[in-house]
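cron nightly-structures :: item 1 of 1
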Amino acid sequence: MSEYIKFLAKGGGATGIGHVMRSLNVARALKEMDMPVYFLFDGENSATGLVEENGFSWSRYKTGRPALAEGPAGVVVMDTGDDVSEYVKSFKKKGSKVLLIDNTTKASGVADLSITPSALMADAPGKDPYAGSKFVIVGENFFHAQKTMRPRVHSLPLEILVTMGWCDAKNITLKVLKALYDMEDIHMTVVLGPDYPFMKTMEPFKEDGWGKITFRHGVKDMAPLMAASHIAFTALGTTVYELAFMGVPPIILSNYLEDEKDLNTLKSMKAGVSLGFHQSVTDWEIQSTARRFVEDAGYWRDVSEQARLLTDGKGAWRIASIIAELYKRGGSR
């Protein structure tokens, strides 16, 4: 049996932290199963601290040569949307089995197994037994927060969470703040990620004494903030599922034009509000969306309840169980 289950984690900077957080949640589940876990990072990466805080070892590899990183691997897990076909081939040549998470490139045809954790895909066994909402990953901290939170009721001021990720390279945060600045009956909690590069653009909101914005920087556990919020403005990514799990309607402004299909699917589920590509969204659309939640308690309750139906959040354990079986069998399925 080989020494490690290795996670090739892409994250930090403009990439955000979603891939790393999902990998960490699966890694924690594997650790509870007494499985040996190790992380690999390519070059400079601001997410390595999270791995250390969770008690996992890691090392860096040279781009294009991941299989030469220290130590053998029985199973390699990659959570990335990039085409990592050459990496997959390199690891397999060394005798490892490779499992991909959330990858629709040609690499999925080279890997031994590909799992798509998305509530936007059908998960019926006859279609794809390794895709769907049952694989959506939500951290244990959200389960704890959900169990201990007080029942949420519609009240004013409406608590609005603004969280656009680890970096928010498009500065969508500023767009949302400008649009909601003059609204009554709201309070905003604005979370700025560790790699957020536009701190100066926030200064006018911090200094004017408006009193309706609370800024938080580098938050390590988002669960308590979500538990205290009525709605949230966010980008398309894992945060959408965390919010939904907590019953917080997500209002989504996407970073990329190619997100349109996923946004339309979410819109059809009525589990939040999909405003579209951030550059095309107007201040009026942002404010009118928030205003409806302020003024219509029934609408807020309906969307909140629908959001909860997106996932049970137990994907980490399901994926970890698949990985553990691959490892125990020496990679055979």
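cron nightly-structures :: done
The longest helix spans residues 18-32.
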